[in-house]
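For this section, I looked closely at the sequence of one protein beside the tokens encoding its backbone, which the following lines show:
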Amino acid sequence: MIKRILLLIFVALAVLILTSIPAHALEVVVQDEKIEFEVAPQLDNGRAFVAVRPVAAKLGAQVVWSPSARTVTVTRGDINLVLAVGGTTAYLNDQPVQLEIPSRIVEGRTLVPVRILAELLGENIIWDASEQGIYIGDRELPFEVLKGSEWVTPEPVQGQWHLSVDLPYQDFAVIQSPEVKLSKPPQQTVLPPPQTDYEKYLVLWAYLGEAPTGGYSIHFSSILRQGDILLVKVHRVSPGPGQIVTEAFTYPEAAARIERGLVSGVSGGRLTVRFVDQDENLLKELVCQIKE
């Protein structure tokens, strides 16, 4: 009998401990900076709740709490957002917005659904289930440049010389399968993408086109995720003054890969990929159906 009582006490304590653990593993990153909270973010029926003030402050917003009205007002620029604790109606610039789930008070702090807060302030938000992370604002993604003689221009380039005009046949691609073949007009040279695990990676390909001489190159500068948009910035370089180059047509290209998990959770599995130059002029836009 005593053993049974002790067992029941042990089980009850274990359940109490497990159910009272806050979502410490849940990380919130705003503008590439991890936010520290006095009250840990919470998950409730698939909704993430966070304290308003730390997130709003990082976004450059002002927060005012009205204890009498039990409302929190978030102001940034020309955006004025009012959330009532326990209510399912918010007011964005005096216009009502219906919410699926209300905000709440936890340990003296106002917690709101983080997606509501971010989106009503005009920010992108990304949920990374694999890392238990929430990213607000643009997220710079790590990428790996793929090496190989068929992917790089052999001529070294001295200095950062911007390409002032587009070369003929310039092209860009997103590769999700080893069956994809790439052509480099006008020679129509077909190149298979390098060996890679397409269950784990996406490959991005940039082809500068037909260059009149050597000394031209193209490479990836940065990759940003902006919600359902992937902004891929490429740097196109032309020969510098006095640079010795190959007197022949060249066909510079570059390739890089990113982990699929970094672009998971896009709406309907549709990812918009925008290739832009160093001045953020649009070079090509693709819409890809991403396999989860």
